[in-house]
Amino acid sequence: MADVKPDIILKYFPDLTEKQIDQFSQLFDLYVFWNAQINVISRKDIEELYERHVLHSLGIAKICTFKAGESVLDVGTGGGFPGIPLAILFPETQFYLVDSIGKKIKVVKEVASALGLENLKADHLRAEQIKEKFNFVVSRAVTRLGEFYPWIQGKFKKESINAIPNGILYLKGGDLTEEIKESKLKAELYPLSEFFEEDFFDTKYVVYVPQ
Ligand SMILES: C[S@@+](CC[C@H](N)C(=O)[O-])C[C@H]1O[C@@H](n2cnc3c(N)ncnc32)[C@H](O)[C@@H]1O
User: Fold this and answer.
1) Ligand 1: distance of its center to the CA of 17 in Å?
2) Quick check: pTM over 0.95?
3) Could you tell me which residues come within 8 angstroms of residue 96 by beta carbon, excluding any fewer than 6 positions away?
4) Which residues bind S-adenosyl-L-methionine (predicted)?
C-alpha cells in the first residue's frame, strides 16, 4: 500500500495551517469515493494521489505565490487539478475551475463542498465561452500551447499586485521547445526537478507565459 497521507505536501510546504493539513488529508478518501463513480484519475494512480496529482499541481505555487484578492482560472480542470490543491494552498485567492465535461465538474463541486472551499467556483463550460478576466490562468495537460492560447487570449486583467506579471502557468510535458516555437509565445520553462525530488514522468515543466 502506498503512503496515502499528505506528508509529502508538508515536506515541500511546511507552513500549512491545521485547516489546510486537514483539507489535504481529506482528499484521499474523497477521490477514492468519487473516482469509483466517475473516473477522473487513472485508477492505478489513486494511491499516488498526493505525489502525482496534489504535489504536482502545487508545482505552480513554486513559481507564483497567489495573493489575496487575485483571481485564477483553471482551464480543463478534469477532477480538479491543479485548481483544488491550489485553492487549498491559497485560501484568499478566488479560483474558477472549468471543464467541457459535466460529470468531471460534478466531482470538483462535490470535493470542494466537502472541503468547505469557499474560494472555489466550478462550471461545466468550454474555456472559449468565458467572458470574465483573471490575473492568472492555470492548467495541466489539456492541449498544445498553440491551440490553448486562443481560448484564453484577452481574458487577463491589466492590473497586477503579484511579484510576477499576470499570465499563464501551465503544467506540461512533450517537446516543449518545439511547441513553444510553434505557438510563437514568449514562454519561460521551469523544470519541476528544480523544486521537487519526485519524478513527474511526462509532465515535468511549468510553462509561464506572462501577459
Ligand atoms: C487530460 S484532461 C486533464 C485534466 C486535469 N487538468 C488533470 O490534469 O488531471 C484534459 C481536460 O481538458 C478538458 N478540456 C478540453 N478542452 C477544453 C476546453 N476548450 N475548455 C474546457 N475544458 C476543456 C477535457 O474535458 C478534459 O477533462
Assistant:
1) 30
2) yes
3) 71, 72, 73, 74, 120, 121, 122, 123, 130, 132, 134
4) 76, 81, 127-128, 140
